[in-house]
Design brief:
- By secondary structure, this protein is an alpha/beta fold.
- The chain is built from 18 helices and seven strands.
- The strands form two sheets. It has a five-stranded parallel beta sheet. A two-stranded antiparallel ribbon has the order 1-4.
- Helix 7 crosses helix 8 and helix 8 packs across helix 10.
Length: about 400
């Protein structure tokens, strides 16, 4: 897989969808070279919705509601169920993990950032992340487990770092997955060893003779011991240069300050980074699409240049205007619009904050029915939801 495997187009998303083989997915999804869908960048950014993805698959294949692929779609909506109800609390430990939060470091060691730990499974994961902006879910879990349980780095530090480099970074899915691995969002820490890597990864990922080459019982003891495991021998470790994370789009993408005159008296459809699909059909016929990036939000959550390119190219295909501004300045520029419409994604809600009260929010298309209250586990949510009609 290369960095060009995710063209930011609807056509590419539909082609990826058409290639999904549910039976192959169920059989091989845990292997790094397995038949996973790689739809996640298109789903995160709204190029495809979950209902569209599901419909596209069932149009070609029998897909039982309990199929592993439907289950995986459910995890995405479950994480958003938690975020919509817990808000900023998902950025803190949901409950105590194997060790107190104070036992973990708040800085990521340089050898991890550089893919230079001497553990091939970790170093290959970092190299793949930087080269492509994508990681198989198994590799994400291995990386998170190593960072938290062996190197004693706080899960939030690792989650923030990984989020910035992922093309499909979704705050709920990413940060709650790290909590699940850390044991602050699950009942026990997720652990892996060299035998697990050998079962599911190519040979150059195999990690015999490294700190993860031990039993699960030994790994559990390590996870509950506050002493960090030292980095392994450097040997044939790769050594990577971490790409910079940018708090705004590169100038070449052509974003400009908002122009209030362009929105005056018009209905405006906000083409925001998590809504890169078609506008709703029921908008007024003269609605102006405006692509937006919220500057203050990206100062908090910077992205790689690769992700900025993905979003900017898709926004340019959907809107004649690309605006970059802080949330108050954006809303002020829209003050004289006839109406301002947007898909109600929690990323944008967080980015706009109190400034978003004038937005006419359109619901995110859901694959599953809404569940009242807050479910403390995926299994609880899964029992209470069903596929939407």
């Amino acid at each position: 897989m290369t960095s060009d495997d995710f063209p930011p187009t609807r056509e590419a998303a539909l082609a990826r969808l058409a290639a999904v083989r549910p039976a192959d997915y169920a059989r091989s999804r845990n292997a790094l070279d397995g038949a996973v869908t790689r739809l996640s960048p298109y789903l995160t950014h709204g190029v495809l919705t979950l209902p569209e993805a599901h419909a596209g698959i069932v149009a070609r294949h029998l897909l039982d509601p309990q199929h592993k692929l439907v289950y995986e779609f459910g995890w995405r909506e479950y994480f958003h169920h938690v975020w919509e109800r817990r808000g900023e609390a998902i950025l803190d430990s949901l409950h105590a993990g194997p060790l107190p939060d104070s036992s973990y470091a708040d800085a990521l060691p340089a050898d991890i950032r550089q893919g230079h730990t001497g553990v091939p499974a970790i170093d290959r994961a970092v190299a793949t992340l930087y080269a492509t902006g994508y990681l198989h879910n198994h590799a994400r879990m291995w990386l998170a487990s190593y960072v938290v349980h062996l190197r004693k780095v706080h899960w939030r530090t690792g989650a923030d770092w990984l989020y910035g480099h992922l093309l499909d970074g979704d705050l709920a899915s990413n940060h709650l997955s790290w909590q699940w691995v850390a044991g602050t969002g699950s009942h026990k820490p997720y652990l892996f060893n060299a035998a697990n890597v050998a079962k599911y990864a190519p040979r150059n990922w195999h990690s015999s003779g490294t700190p993860i080459d031990c039993s699960y019982e030994a790994l559990d003891r390590i996870a509950r011991d506050p002493v960090a495991v030292a980095a392994g021998a450097r040997g044939d470790a790769l050594g990577e240069s971490e790409p910079p994370l940018l708090d705004g789009p590169p100038a070449a993408h052509g974003y400009v300050a908002p122009d209030p005159a362009a929105a005056h008296g018009r209905d405006v459809w906000l083409v925001h980074p998590w809504s890169l699909g078609a506008a709703p059909a029921d908008l007024p016929g003269d609605t102006l699409p405006v692509a937006v990036a919220i500057a203050d939000w990206h100062r908090r959550w910077p992205w790689s240049a690769r992700r900025w390119s993905f979003v900017a190219e898709r926004q340019r295909a959907l809107a004649p205007l690309l605006w970059l501004a802080r949330a108050p300045a954006l809303v002020a520029a829209l003050a004289d619009a006839r109406g301002v419409h947007a898909i109600d994604d929690p990323h944008l809600r967080q980015a706009l904050g109190a400034a978003g009260t004038r937005i006419q929010w359109h619901p995110v298309p859901r694959l599953f029915t809404s569940v009242a209250g807050t479910c403390g586990s995926f299994s609880q949510w899964w029992r209470r939801t069903r596929l939407a009609d």
